[in-house]
Design a protein that fits this description.
The protein has about 400 residues and is an alpha/beta fold. The chain has a domain of about 80 residues. About 5% of the residues have low confidence.
C-alpha cells in the first residue's frame, strides 16, 4: 500500500507541475492588452463584407485565441507576426484581397511595429497623424488603395523608416517642405497621387525616389537633391516640373536611372564626368518636355550609358557623332525634334546594335530600310519654319 501511495503522490505532483508549466507558458504568451485593443480596432474598422471567409483577417478571432500565442492552427494564421521575446506585435502584412475600410488611429498603440503593409486593397480616408507614434516602423506600404487627404506632416517623426510607399492612392495637397529629418529612409514612392508643390529637401540617405504622375511644379534644385550621394533612381515623370536641369544633377555619384519624361523642362546642362572619376549612369529619359538647344554630346562621355531618350522636345542641330561611336549605347530615341543633317553612318553599320528612333525630324539621307528612321521625317515646310525659312540652317 505504501508503494501505491507514493506512486499516486508522484503522479499527482507531475500533473500539478504540468498544469503550472502550461499556465505559465500561456501567461508568458499573452499579448499586451494595448496591442490587442489596437488589433481589435483595426479589424473593426474594416467593412465586414469585404473580409472573405478564407482570408487572413477572417482568422482573427479574439474570443478563441490570443494573437501571439502558439501554435496557430485555426486562428490568427496569417498577416500577423509577434516578437518571440516580448510577445508584442511587430508586423502586419495583409493579403491583397480587397479589404475596405478606414485606418484606425489606435494603430498607434502598436509601438513595437516594424512593418505595416496594407498594399493592394481598398482602404480609404485619411492616413491618421497618430501613425507617427510608431517609432520602430521600418516599412510603411499603403500602395494601391484609396487613401485621400494630405500627407501627414507628423510622418517625418518616423526616423527608423526605411521604406515609404504611398503610391497609387488619391493623396492631395502640397508636399512637405522638408523630409531630410527621415535619416533612415532609403526608398520613397509617392507616385500616382494628386500631390502638388515643389520638391522638398529630401532624406540624405535615399537610394530610390519616385514621385511620378502627380502635379509637382518648380525646378529640380540642388537644395533638394544635391547632397544625396547614395541616390540611384529618380522617377519624376508625368509632372509639371520646369526650368533647367543643371549639370550637377547628372554628376550625383551613385545615379543610375533617371526618368523625367512628360514634364515642362526647357533646358539641359550636362558636363562630362570629372577626369579620373566614374559614373554609374545607365538610363536617361527626358522625352516629351520642352527642351530647346542642341543635343548634348556630353551624354556620350558617361561610360555605362545604354539608354537615352530625348524624344519629342525642341532640339535642333545635328546628331552628335559621339553617339554612333559609343559601344554601350543600345537604345536611342531622338524622334520628334527638329534635328538636321545626315545621321551618323555608324548607326547603320552591320555591327550597330542600336534600337530606337530618329524619325519625325528634319534629317536627310536616313535609310528608309532602317527601323531607326521611322516614322518618316517632317515635311519640308515645317522644317523651314523651324529654322527661320531655311531648312538645315539654324537661326542666328
Amino acid at each position: 500500500m505504501s508503494d501505491i501511495y507514493v506512486l499516486c503522490h508522484l503522479l499527482l505532483l507531475l500533473l500539478l507541475l504540468s498544469f503550472f508549466s502550461t499556465t505559465a507558458n500561456i501567461a508568458d504568451a499573452a499579448t499586451l492588452p494595448s496591442d490587442i485593443s489596437a488589433l481589435k480596432a483595426f479589424k473593426s474598422s474594416v467593412t465586414p463584407s469585404s473580409i472573405p471567409s478564407w482570408s487572413c483577417l477572417a482568422s482573427w478571432d479574439f474570443s478563441a485565441a490570443d494573437p501571439c500565442s502558439l501554435p496557430r492552427r485555426t486562428h490568427f494564421t496569417c498577416a500577423l507576426s509577434c516578437s518571440p521575446d516580448s510577445f508584442r506585435v511587430i508586423q502586419i502584412t495583409l493579403d491583397p484581397v480587397g479589404y475596405s475600410g478606414s485606418l484606425s488611429p489606435l494603430l498607434s498603440l502598436l509601438t513595437h511595429l516594424t512593418t505595416l503593409d496594407l498594399s493592394d486593397n481598398s482602404f480609404y480616408g485619411q492616413i491618421p497623424p497618430s501613425i507617427s507614434s510608431l517609432l520602430n516602423l521600418r516599412t510603411l506600404s499603403l500602395r494601391s488603395n484609396n487613401f485621400s487627404g494630405s500627407l501627414p506632416s507628423s510622418i517625418t517623426n518616423l526616423k527608423s523608416l526605411e521604406t515609404l510607399d504611398l503610391s497609387r492612392n488619391s493623396l492631395s495637397g502640397f508636399l512637405l517642405k522638408s523630409m531630410d529629418s527621415m535619416t533612415g529612409l532609403r526608398r520613397l514612392d509617392l507616385s500616382f497621387n494628386k500631390l502638388a508643390g515643389s520638391l522638398p529637401k529630401l532624406p540624405p540617405n535615399l537610394l530610390e525616389l519616385a514621385m511620378k504622375g502627380n502635379s509637382l511644379s518648380g525646378s529640380v534644385l540642388k537644395s533638394s537633391l544635391g547632397g544625396l550621394t547614395q541616390l540611384e533612381v529618380v522617377e519624376l515623370s508625368e509632372n509639371s516640373l520646369t526650368g533647367t536641369l543643371e549639370s550637377w544633377f547628372f554628376l550625383l555619384p551613385s545615379l543610375q536611372q533617371v526618368d523625367l519624361a512628360k514634364n515642362s523642362l526647357t533646358r539641359v546642362e550636362i558636363s562630362s564626368p570629372p577626369a579620373g572619376g566614374s559614373s554609374d549612369l545607365v538610363a536617361v529619359d527626358l522625352g516629351f518636355n520642352k527642351i530647346d538647344g542642341y543635343v548634348p554630346a556630353s551624354f556620350a562621355d558617361y561610360p555605362l550609358l545604354s539608354s537615352l531618350s530625348l524624344r519629342y522636345n525642341r532640339l535642333r542641330g545635328k546628331i552628335p557623332m559621339e553617339y554612333s561611336r559609343k559601344k554601350s549605347l543600345r537604345r536611342l530615341y531622338l524622334d520628334g525634334n527638329f534635328l538636321i543633317g545626315q545621321p551618323p553612318a555608324g548607326f547603320f553599320g552591320g555591327k550597330s546594335g542600336v534600337s530606337g528612333s530618329l524619325g519625325d525630324n528634319c534629317l536627310w539621307g536616313c535609310p528608309a530600310s532602317s527601323q531607326l528612321c521611322l516614322p518618316s521625317q517632317k515635311p519640308t515646310g515645317i522644317c523651314k519654319q523651324a529654322y527661320g525659312g531655311r531648312k538645315g540652317k539654324p537661326r542666328s
